[in-house]
Design goal:
The complex is a heterotrimer of chains A (about 300), B (about 350) and C (about 300). Chain A is mainly α. Chain A is about 75% helix and about 0% strand. Chain B is about 25% helix and about 30% strand. Chain B contains eight helices and 20 strands. Chain B starts with a strand and ends in a 10-residue tail after the last strand. Chain C has one domain: MetI-like fold (Orthogonal Bundle). Chain C contains 14 helices and no strands. Classes of the chains: A mainly alpha (about 300), B alpha+beta (about 350), C mainly alpha (about 300). Chains in contact: A-B, A-C, B-C. Chains A and C meet through α2, α5, α6, α7 and α8 of A and α1, α3, α4, α5 and α6 of C.
Chain lengths: ~300, ~350, ~300
């Protein structure tokens, strides 16, 4: 009993600092410094490779290929960009990628959002199996379908034509879109749709006036994801196009050669190919993470 | 005029061959302008019944009539009712004004009229100043009022409430309860109110429907529910602290012995050999065994727990086979471990059939 | 009658749902299912465009051939090597880094945002980036290593089969690790902090808390990460193509089973054999996925929560 009262008395005054406290503080500070160092290392790891490519594209190759690269800011030049962007053999693939990307996104979003809404709202037997199926489509190595698609597109006269690419990309990207959107539509509380029913909305109106506006950020992020996936594709574009409908990744890859290589142009092409999707990803990052990552964690 | 009548309403999930019905053979009438609560524990079917009246769920068999017209065929929005949801169901992407106006606009009400009704409703509920805000900026209490305002602005024949107060904290709940009662007095519309809180049901309702496991236990006024519970379930569900329910058998003329204990209860009439006896804690009294002459064997039991509330104390007495709660005024005079005698002379004794749970007429 | 009404409502619901979903499902089934079936069909033929236009049906001969083909065995070995590092190493590192990032620190949100950068970079550009860095004659790595005196002659990273494979691993890790970190972070944030406090009171130190609380509760996300990363690793293509000039070399150094299928189909023009290789790769992906589910899947209702 007495120890309790003793301790009670001493808590009314601040405890005197002990050597153990100093040790703990020192350890904590070291820990924080170590932590900060690791984080800084991580940041370098994340950004350095891309930054280097950027740097490479902005300097004349002679300056960078010396034993100790000359990074004098006076040598900065956009010549490589000017050269590439005025070359039609580069511009055409760029425009193609944009057209295909936007078109694929539109088609996928229209078809996919309707389908995802149906899956989210109307539970039916086999729904989970279908959703799982959508995910397993991601498991298919594209090589399996390359030659059949080639033959198929050829048969329909769509080889080396933009619509051919759009149709193909839609087939691959649609499952991903549906899977992501179902997650977003699931988040809408059912009582909201019931309230809308009492307020007099029919099924279509509920979908358009309530569900879509509420899932809007998720819809935007999914659209961006669809565009990124479409823009970044290399293999299918290489197989299914040759000169007319070729896309930017294919053209960029062509800059590499086995022995001699125009590094500066390759770097420039790389930057131009990467920047649009990088910006889009950063723009929608919060919602992309929610859709992809958290959907995965829950599933 | 909006009288609601349920006729042999039944709801079974999974079609006709599915398991036990969620709602079984409900038949009763809610009078025009009355405030009726559907009271019961979770899973008893009260929300299902409300949803069927609203048209949000289909009836498996039976009929629902509003003002003599069959409505179970009609869509939810054609039944002229308003629904207040437990989670308020406010559209997050619209501001308060649009939330309230949405239903009116869907019904093609004239713009000027919409404006007038929105302002009317929000003024009445003292939220006119948040009309331009979105729901996420409002407090829980304010959101609840917006949900109410949305219902009021519709000027429906019937109001349906699905546990609207359960998401509020205790203080706000009591406050809003009184306001709801005032509102009903002003508006006078027929209201159906689902709740699991028997206090809410008692204070707000003209009549109460007590449900358990999909069946109707009793339909009556608060007085009837409290003083003449039709089944053992109703007796134990309504009233705080819970009614003491104990098995008893007839010992002699007009005397019943609580099984396994020394407690004897005087009962006029002879409802049966074996009964379940019901006694409300606040109607019983406690007499310290010392006052009875000090002999421990005269005590009915020993005090186990005392829970003081301020104006009264709930004393739990161990009778041997069971525990018995008595509510005594103030802080009481007994202590834990005291032998006591329970005084049931002033209590109204309820008797129930031990098998069916139905009230035995005394 | 109310039952007809209910049935009517249900039928209209069904029609609405079907109307909304049928176009999308039809597109996917037709445009993916048909080529897939055709690929299966192709794999049953001896179909080599270099050898002429006769395609005799050979049944499962292609499959038995690939089972004994030493090139396939070597490719499988390389694939295993590559996957072991990227899948196991990747997920393990991701968990550790996620634990590192799970505490509050300044700039935390910035780091989380930047984690998306490698994921967003198109795989082709990834190849170019790392080629720039590791190129034998003009890459920056050689320049740095020479400058700091760690080596005296330039290392031909991309001319040596073993080194090229390791560069490939490094490049792919850069691209996939941050996304895996995001997955793991989300998983970590799903664990309620209270149970860590309870464990502290129970006397568990940091490492014990990691083993007994963090890891068991991360079983789901970790399994998902393993599955997804296995799929990605088996499907790697663009980076290999750009790093090695489309050859999968040097001397087959980076020819994984997926790349082998590509070479056989498009370089050797052996469509039938190539199709069977491709399908074999797909089967491999499915098998690995099932393996992970078997090893780590939830057993019954036991969720292993530390609640």
């Amino acid at each position: 009993m007495s120890t309790l009262t003793e301790r009670a008395a001493s808590t009314t005054q601040p405890r005197a600092a002990t050597p153990r406290d100093a040790g703990r503080r020192r350890r904590r500070r070291l820990g924080t410094i170590g932590h900060r160092a690791l984080v800084a290392l991580l940041l370098v790891y994340l950004l350095a490779p891309f930054v280097w490519m950027l740097v490479y594209s902005l300097y004349p190759s002679s300056a960078l290929q010396q034993a100790s690269p000359d990074l004098n800011p006076g040598l900065l030049t956009g010549a490589s960009y000017a050269r590439l962007l005025s070359d039609s053999s580069f511009l055409v693939p760029m425009v193609n990628s944009a057209i295909v990307g936007i078109s694929t996104t539109i088609v996928c979003m229209v078809l996919g959002s309707a389908c995802a809404y149906a899956f989210a709202r109307y539970r039916f037997r086999g729904r989970n199996a279908l959703l799982l199926g959508m995910l397993t489509v991601q498991a298919i190595p594209v090589i399996v379908l390359a030659v059949p698609l080639f033959i198929l597109l050829r048969a329909f006269g769509l080889y080396d034509r933009l619509p051919g690419l759009i149709v193909t990309y839609t087939a691959f990207i649609l499952p991903l879109v549906i899977w992501m959107l179902v997650g977003f539509f699931d988040e809408i509380p059912p009582s909201l749709e019931r309230a809308a029913r009492i307020d007099g909305c029919n099924r279509l109106q509920i979908m358009i006036k309530i569900a879509f506006p509420l899932a809007a950020p998720g819809l935007a992020a999914t659209a961006i994801l669809a565009f990124i996936t479409s823009w970044s594709d290399f293999f299918l574009a290489k197989v299914l196009t040759s000169t007319a409908a070729t896309t930017l990744p294919v053209k960029t890859a062509a800059f590499q050669g086995l022995f001699a290589m125009d590094y500066t142009s390759a770097a420039t092409a790389g930057v131009i190919t990467a920047v649009p999707v990088l910006l889009l990803a950063l723009l929608a990052q919060k919602w992309i993470i929610r859709g992809l990552v958290e959907g995965a964690v829950k599933g | 005029m909006a009288e609601i009548e349920l006729v042999h309403v039944q709801k079974t999930y999974g079609g006709h061959k599915g398991g036990a019905p969620a709602v079984q053979d409900l038949s009763y009438t809610i009078g025009d302008g009355q405030f009726v609560s559907l009271l019961g524990p979770s899973g008893c079917g009260k929300s299902t019944t409300l949803n069927m009246i609203a048209g949000l769920e289909d009836i498996t068999s039976g009929e629902i009539l509003i003002d003599g017209q069959r409505v179970d065929d009609l869509d939810a929005d054609k039944r002229d009712l308003a629904f207040v949801f437990q989670d308020y169901a406010l559209y997050p992407h619209m501001n308060v004004y649009d939330n309230i106006a949405f239903g009116l606009r869907m019904r093609k009400v004239a713009k000027a009229e919409v404006d007038q009704r929105v302002h009317d409703a929000t003024r009445r509920l003292d939220i006119e100043h948040v009309l331009r805000d979105k729901p996420r900026r409002l407090s829980g209490g304010q959101r609840q009022r917006v949900a109410l305002a949305r219902a009021i602005a519709r000027r429906p024949a019937v109001f349906l409430f699905d546990e609207p107060l359960s998401n509020l904290d205790a203080l706000l709940r009591d406050q809003t309860r009184s306001e709801l009662k005032l509102l009903h007095a002003e508006l006078g519309a027929t209201s159906v109110y689902v709740t699991h809180d028997q206090e809410e049901a008692m204070t707000l309702s003209d009549r109460i429907v007590v449900m358990s496991r999909g069946k109707l236990e009793q339909y009556g006024t608060p007085y009837e529910i409290y003083h003449q519970p039709a089944t053992e379930f109703v007796a134990s569900f309504v009233g705080k602290p819970r009614m003491n329910l104990l098995p008893a058998h007839r010992e002699g003329d007009g005397r019943y012995a609580v099984a396994g204990s020394t407690l004897r209860v005087a009962l006029a009439g002879s409802p049966g050999g074996e009964v379940r006896l019901g006694l409300r804690p606040e109607e019983c009294g406690l007499v310290g065994a010392a006052a009875v002459g000090g002999a421990a064997r005269d005590a009915h039991g020993t005090v186990r727990v005392i829970e003081p509330l301020g104006n009264a104390s709930d004393v739990t007495v161990d009778l041997g086979p069971a525990l018995f709660t008595v509510r005594v005024p103030g802080f009481g005079t007994v202590h834990v471990g005291d032998p006591v005698q329970i005084d049931t002379s002033a209590a109204r004794v309820h008797t129930f059939d031990p098998v069916t749970g139905r009230r035995l007429i005394d | 009658m109310s039952t007809t009404r209910a049935d009517q409502r249900r039928r209209r619901d069904l029609r609405f749902g079907l109307g909304l979903s049928l176009p999308a499902v039809a597109v996917v089934v037709l445009l993916l299912g048909y080529p897939m079936g055709y690929a299966l069909y192709m794999s049953g033929f001896s179909w080599n465009d270099k050898l002429g236009s006769s395609h005799p049906f050979v049944g499962l001969a292609n499959y038995s051939e690939l089972l004994g083909d030493p090139a396939v065995h070597r490719a499988l070995g390389r694939t295993l090597y590559f996957s072991a590092f990227t899948v196991l190493g990747g997920v393990a590192l991701a968990v550790l880094i996620a634990v590192l990032l799970n505490t509050e620190f300044r700039g935390r949100t910035l780091v989380r945002v930047l984690l998306l950068v490698p994921w967003a970079v198109p795989p082709v550009v990834n190849g170019i980036m790392w080629k720039l860095i590791f190129d034998g004659s003009s890459g920056i790595v050689n320049t740095i290593l020479l400058g700091t005196g760690l080596i005296d002659t330039r290392v031909q990273w991309l001319a040596d089969p073993g080194l090229t494979m390791n560069v490939l691993i490094f490049a792919e890790m850069w691209k996939l690790l941050p996304f895996l970190c995001l997955l793991m972070l989300a998983g970590l944030q799903g664990i309620p902090t209270n149970i860590y406090k309870a464990a502290r009171i129970d006397g568990a130190d940091g490492w014990q808390r990691f083993r007994k609380i963090t890891l068991p509760n991360m079983r789901g996300p970790i399994m998902f990460a393993l599955i997804v990363q296995s799929m990605w690793s088996l499907k790697v293509f663009d980076t290999i193509y750009v790093l090695t000039g489309g050859s999968g070399g040097p001397a087959e150094g980076t020819t994984t089973i997926n790349f082998l299928a590509y070479l056989v189909t498009f370089s050797n023009l052996d469509r039938g054999y190539g199709a069977s290789l491709a399908i074999a790769t797909m089967v491999l992906v499915i098998l690995v996925t099932l393996l992970w589910i078997l090893l780590l899947g939830q057993r019954g209702n036991d969720r292993g929560d530390a609640r």
